[in-house]
Design a protein that fits this description.
Four Helix Bundle (Hemerythrin (Met), subunit A); about 0% strand; binds heme C
Length: about 150
């Protein structure tokens, strides 16, 4: 099994060299689509998370499910920014990501850590600032590392 996945990774690495050509050819399972889908899911979770952000609407079980999903997506996102994938016409990823990959990854880790904290909230008082902290990571990262859609 291990051998197979090594071969797959080697093939993926080779495909990266062909950049946009490879990305255009691969419609399923490409990292740009996967990371956009993961980000979309995070956006959806944040919307759901806003819905329980008051003393009247707070639900600890929902907070757990929603924020665990954000944390899982943050973890998944780490592997979805291979070098050169900003060249995809559909991607809004800024080339600065690969100049400051350590900072970018640190921000993804922070998103995951803060979401995990929010997932453990058992009261609205604990959830509210935790939810806000998760939300604070979105714009600060987008401001630096997300560009307008290239066409
Ligand atoms: C570590 C940096 C980082 C953090 C933190 C981050 N994002 Fe993103 N986000 C990006 C980048 C980069 C893109 C563009 C990806 C691409 O198009 O290749 C993006 C794209 C998106 C998109 C568009 C997806 C699409 O359909 O193309 C949404 C929605 C989104 N982010 C929501 C969020 C929300 C909500 C949060 C906070 C809970 C968040 N993001 C946190 C970097 C980040």
């Amino acid at each position: 099994m291990k051998r197979t996945s090594t071969v797959v990774w080697a093939a993926a690495g080779g495909a990266c060299l062909a950049l946009s050509v490879a990305f255009a050819a691969v419609s399923a399972g490409n990292p740009v689509e996967e990371r956009q889908a993961a980000m979309k899911a995070v956006g959806q979770s944040m919307k759901e998370g806003a819905g329980i952000n008051s003393a009247a609407t707070f639900d600890a079980a929902k907070a757990k499910t929603i924020m665990e999903s954000v944390a899982a997506n943050a973890k998944k996102l780490h592997g979805l920014y291979p070098a050169g994938s900003d060249k995809d016409a559909k991607s809004e990823a800024d080339p600065k990501i690969w100049e400051n990959k350590a900072d970018f990854d640190k921000r993804l880790t922070e998103l995951g850590t803060l979401a995990t904290t929010a997932s453990k909230a058992t009261t609205a008082e604990a959830y509210s600032p935790a939810y806000k902290a998760v939300g604070g990571t979105c714009k600060s990262c987008h401001d630096i590392y997300r560009t307008k859609k290239k066409s």
